[in-house]
Design a protein that fits this description.
Elements (H helix, E strand, L loop, with lengths): L3 E4 L5 H12 L3 E6 L3 H13 L4 E5 L5 H12 L6 E4 L15 H25 L5 E5 L3 H4 L6 H21 L5 E7 L6 H4 L5 H4 L12 H12 L10 E4 L4
Parallel strand pairs: 1-2, 1-4, 2-3, 4-5, 5-6, 6-7
Helix pairs in contact: 1-2, 1-9, 3-4, 4-6
The structure holds NADP nicotinamide-adenine-dinucleotide phosphate.
NADP nicotinamide-adenine-dinucleotide phosphate binds next to helix 1, strand 2, helix 4 and helix 7.
Length: 242
């Protein structure tokens, strides 16, 4: 039976690249997104053209009912075997003292509460052989001073989620891991007010360039695959040396 994988934030960036890669590996896919219907439909058309069954569901991961609807749509494709907890946001880049409470709450709600709600749905449905990948960030260990310390703190929280859930679910044969991307060329930088950030900071990346979404997708796909059958509780850095 083909694997069935839920990808939150599957309409753009790392999530969309992961969807394309998993489709090539034969996964049926349920993509969640927040509001960009056109982007989600464009990815969906590509997945279906690759020959897999796929649905796109507008599901805000902050809302337990919308998360439940996303997993219900996935279950229509077959037993759910994978979750990529990926939907994430930053807030405007700037000094800690300028951080607005609403931006802080959104970062916590999407990047942490959303991950917990999705992992909870997945853990209820999944059986032996299933896997979860939480998309974290190198920020979790670097701290992102002067940019978004609160986002870094929340990403460290998702790494703790990975470690704890890996131990809780391993006895049921469910593997939980994380991927911590470095600076990857996606729309997230424009949304945080600095579209040219990947190029601007390339000089401090040991490999000398920002990463591409597909380079992160490769790590996610590996962690979901049987090739990673003995990997649990790991957070794999994909940061060009950062
Ligand atoms: P992106 O290009 O901005 O895409 C974000 C995706 O998440 C979109 O599909 C968006 O849907 C969705 N989304 C946002 N808020 C949502 C919500 N509340 N509910 C459901 N979906 C929501 O982001 P990205 O750069 O690919 O980032 C993906 C993940 O990687 C995030 O967790 C991010 O923190 C992490 N990361 C990224 C980088 C980087 O440099 N890009 C580095 C480290 C870690 P809509 O378009 O419909 O809003």
């Amino acid at each position: 039976m083909a694997p069935v994988t839920v990808i939150t934030g599957g309409s753009r960036g790392i999530g969309a690249a992961t969807a394309r890669r998993l489709a090539r590996a034969g996964h049926h896919l349920a993509l969640g997104y927040r509001r960009d219907h056109l982007a989600a439909d464009a990815v969906l058309a590509e997945l279906r053209a690759a020959g897999v069954h796929a649905v796109a569901v507008p599901a805000d991961t902050r809302d337990p009912d919308q998360v439940a609807a996303l997993f219900a749509a996935a279950a229509d494709l077959g037993p759910v075997t994978g979750l990529v907890n990926n939907a994430g946001v930053t807030s405007p880049i700037g000094p800690f003292t300028e951080l607005r409470p609403d931006d802080l709450r959104e970062v916590v709600d999407v990047n942490l509460v959303g991950y917990v709600l999705c992992a909870q749905q997945a853990a209820r449905l999944m059986t032996d052989g299933a896997a979860i990948v939480n998309v974290s960030s190198v920020a979790a260990t670097l701290g992102s001073p002067g940019e978004y310390v609160h986002y870094a703190a929340v990403k460290a929280g998702t790494d703790a989620l990975t470690v704890g859930l890996a131990k809780e679910l391993a006895p049921r044969g469910i593997r939980v891991n994380g991927v911590a991307p470095g600076i990857i060329r996606t729309d997230i930088h424009a949304l945080s007010g600095q579209p040219d950030r990947p190029e601007r900071v390339a000089g401090r990346i040991p490999l000398g360039r920002p990463g591409e979404p597909d380079e992160v997708a490769a790590a996610i796909a590996w962690l979901l695959s049987p090739d990673a059958s003995y990997t649990a509780g790991a957070v794999l850095r994909v940061g060009g040396g950062l």
